[in-house]
Amino acid sequence: MQCPCDPSKLYSECCQKAHDNILSVSTAEALMRSRFSAFVLADIDYLQKSHHSSKRPSKREKKEIQQWAKSVDWIKLEVLNTTKGTALDDTGTVEFKAFFMEDGNIQVIHENSRFCKEQGHWVYLDAVE
Predict the structure, then answer these.
(1) Are 111 and 118 in contact (CB under 8 A)?
(2) How many CB atoms lie within 10 A of CB 117?
(3) Rg, Å, the chain Cα set
(4) Per the count of CB atoms within 10 A, which of 34, 41, 62, 112 is most buried?
(5) How many Å apart are CA 82 and CA 90, to the nearest integer?
């Protein structure tokens, strides 16, 4: 299977590694890519695990996110910019566009996301305002 975050790579050689072991994620961009793939695969447990503990969605929100992720057709991910977020950093940002089809219309999530390390691994914190 091709990886949802980058169809030129195999899922088993890309985001599956993160999904199997979040500690293997070494950069903020890799975490963001693995979260996109988790949305495509509706892997809500991984989305929860990779979300900062202070901002994790509730059980009700988790179910809503899962239903929504399954209801749309994911098209592609474009990474536009990154700041910091290397293995040596504790924080970083990743600007991206995630394209999907919903109700017959192409939609785009354009976000500059903040990431940080929590308990030794990268997590999604929030969107930069």
Answers:
(1) no
(2) 16
(3) 14
(4) 34
(5) 14
Tokens of 90: 């504790």
Between CA 48 and CA 56 the distance in angstroms is: 6
Contact present, 99 and 76 (Cβ < 8 Å): yes
DSSP string, 56-93: PPPHHHHHHHHHHHHHSEEEEEEEEEEEE-STT-SEEE
CA distance 74 to 71: 9
Full pLDDT tens readout for the chain, 129 residues: 999 999 999 999 999 999 999 999 999 999 999 999 999 999 999 999 999 999 999 989 999 999 999 999 999 999 999 999 999 999 999 999 999 999 999 999 999 999 999 999 999 999 997
Structure tokens at 73: 């057709």
